[in-house]
UniProtKB/TrEMBL annotation:
The keyword Transmembrane does not apply. This is 6-phosphofructokinase. Transmembrane segments: none annotated. The keyword Ubl conjugation does not apply. Its cofactor is Mg(2+). Residues 5-309, 391-676 form the Phosphofructokinase domain. It comes from the Bacteria. Pathway: Carbohydrate degradation; glycolysis; D-glyceraldehyde 3-phosphate and glycerone phosphate from D-glucose: step 3/4. GO terms for molecular function: 6-phosphofructokinase activity.
Amino acid sequence: MGVTLAVLTSGGDAQGMNPTVRAVVRSALHHGAEVHAVYEGYQGLVDGGDRIRHVAWDDVGYILTRGGTVLGTARSAEFRDRAGRRRAAANLVARGIDRLVVIGGDGSLSGADVLRAEWPSLLAELVGAGELDQETADRHPVLALVGLVGSIDNDMVGTETTIGADSALHRIVEALDAIGSTASSHQRSFVVEVMGRRCGYLALAAALAAGADYVLIPERPPQPGWEDDLCELVRAGRVAGRRNSVVVVAEGAHDSANQPITSAYVRTVLEERLGEDTRVTILGHVQRGGVPSAYDRWMSAILGSAAVEELLAATPETVPPLVGVRGNRVHTVPLHEAVTRTRELADRITARDFDTAQKMRGDGFTEMVQLFESLSRALPDTDRDSSPRSRIAVLNVGGLAPGMNAAARAAVRLGLHRGHTMLGVDGSFRGLVAGDVRELAWGDVSDWTGAGGAELGISRDVPAVEDLYAIGRGLERHGVDGLLIVGGWDAFASAGTLRAERHRYPAFQIPTIVLPATIDNNIPTSEMSVGADTALNHVVSSIDRIRETSAATRRCFVVETMGGYCGYLALMSGLSGGAVRVYLHEEGVTLSRLAADVEQMVDSFAAGQRLFLAVRNERASEMYTSDFLRRIFEQEGRGTFDARQIVLGQTQQGGSPSPFDRILAARLAARAVAWLGDEMAAGSAASAVIGLHEDGVRIVPLQRAEELADREHRRPTDQWWMRLRPTVDMLAARTAAGPGV
Ligand code: ADP
């Protein structure tokens, strides 16, 4: 007999639950398992009947773009009682289900763990009551369980991210950007309350991403007298030229005596003490709504399929895992431990042991706390370092990447905070030669965090041999002691040129660091570049719109993404957007592969599909262009459907950076400036690349990064995301009737 599993969503809904359900169902079918969906969470388990239904491949089609959960969720009081769980067990075992994927918060996962622990005794009770025969009970001695965390709060210990948190952050940062602009117009203050009863992640990350002035979170309550501190900060910001001030308050914020701090109280403080015209906005349920972000789609696809693999491999001895995330990878921890530690964290807050609570949130959380404090407090009048080597120049090189401004802003503020003189070079190396270099003050970069484009300008010119003398002169003229080059492959190559020529030009004998900022995401040693997440979100929302048009007619689309020779954007947008085919330069495109694809496409339309979506990287193949693909698809369709080619083009480089890109930019810039400070003090002339690695931000010698580069194709020789390829194929490859959407 085959394996039968069930999936349910429970607790608070979160964007990303639907993509997760889709991945769970399709992976299970791919592995030959039978799948049931449970509707209305645990209440559905207790009720049984048609609340536990078989699901097929197409039942989870077209749900990728929907927020919330199509399976429904409910709080179930009955499931909290053993009698309710006994009915749940009876309903499961009657359908031959003894494997369960639960997608929910810590409450839901605790509930699942209770059901699992009680399973044998519940079945024994059912047998004793004559409601179940012994033979059936013997066939299902244990309930195998896997937990996935669906929660916008990012509040589970044991995983870096939870499904839905990134989308919620998108909603909050969009709101904060909008509030920031109206606040600026009227020179107002805003107090914005965001969700997070026990966890300050959303408030903290949003405050950091949106450049807010102050944040109040449960894990780090302010000290007594904090009202004076807040007022001083807002006043100083005004003096430094800020036209607005924004305070972000987590709904569970409290002071160090655990007395709640309400947004209304913060407003009173600002109004009464500073005479600020202050408004309160409580964001509420908009944070849960809307389309899931690209990250919440691709990560949940990976998590969903990993959960199924865990579940299918489970033996009676298996300790139920929580399938979570660490450094862009699946990371499993024992479910029970994760739930217990999450509870412990809440207890630590109640016991006012805030240091432990913050530590339990993980290093990333502490890093964000420190970063936010430095960025919001680094005022221009901080004591200057008296070190003679202390002038850092920041410049952008290469194509535009959203988040370049956020990187420059963080570098400038943190540099000033450390006592350096921060120089902004307008227009890349050419600007340096022309003398377009200005000293940047704290207030000059105030509104840069959410701005698209590049305030410091940009140029694709990589220094040629004949430019080097003038560049050296430029560095000397402005007394540059350290160089922060923000950009993509051209930035990387420029740093390489300066390094290679430094024996000839003494001016190049200064510490130089590359901060990867490119939508191509192709810089060796950094898993993510600033800008790539924003571009991915752009591509995915374009795909969503394209997908909608197929509601009217049957269509085949070939969507062409940027990326140079690097397939990151193509593969990840294919995974997030539910494409059935992805064409990459890394793999090449062959005629026999195309012939098979055409055949599948024709079959899928014949089987009633309305959409065939292919994503092609712009350089996937010199011969088989997007237009060529479109034409063969159209020709072979023989008039039964339209085939269209959509080249997304430069829009992918524009727009306001995503929350992830803003935070990444700040993290990288902070560490890069600290590194430059140390190297300048040591009189070093080292060159390095900073980047995001599996275990966090790291700095790698430039030479090492060069060894890992495929120069001809301007990409790393090893690309971490290529291992996600099988997941893309699996989720697209509906058996028998051709690909699904
Ligand atoms: P979340 O999963 O978002 O934390 P809740 O804490 O409300 O949401 O839990 C959702 C549901 O999970 C509850 O309505 C209840 O049915 C079930 N549940 C939670 N905790 C337990 C528990 N300790 N024992 C049994 N069921 C529980």
